[in-house]
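Following the same procedure, sequence and fold were stored together, as reproduced here.

>
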Amino acid sequence: MSIAVIRNMDTQGRIIIPADIRKETGIRSGSTLEIATDGTTIRIRKCTPRNTGSKELWDFLEPLYKNIRCGLAISSTDCILASKGCYLPEGAQITEELRSLIQEGREMFSQSGLCPPVPDCSRKVAALFPVTLALASKKAALLLIPEPGRCLSGAECNCTRLIANMITRKCKPNE
């Protein structure tokens, strides 16, 4: 069932999501919501809780995000393993274009964006840093996914490169 209502925003930019919509979508106090724009349309989407199986990867993303405030994700050649600062659900299948870039296994940068990380994503990967993960047992990458129109600084890329190297050292497969 589709529910549509009209609500007024208060002076602090808040709106109330009606109880019927919260109940239908499973939104509760403390739920994480993604708010995105598409022209004059505003979309609100409930984010699924992250998989605790990737906690070690998420622990690398958390401090990096606090410093550079840019969307981040770690992806294998199959799917998103962890993300922070942008809604990319763990286990989401990546685009073929991103899969090819990760398989190349080299650093890549583009201020205009390399490609979307997952199908139907409005944001593009701006930088890709290869990582080696035991749990992926194949190539993977740390991705920088800024808001549209935001340019990355050299310091942000260098900081991300450092974290990518730390992830590889910490999560290297046993040889």
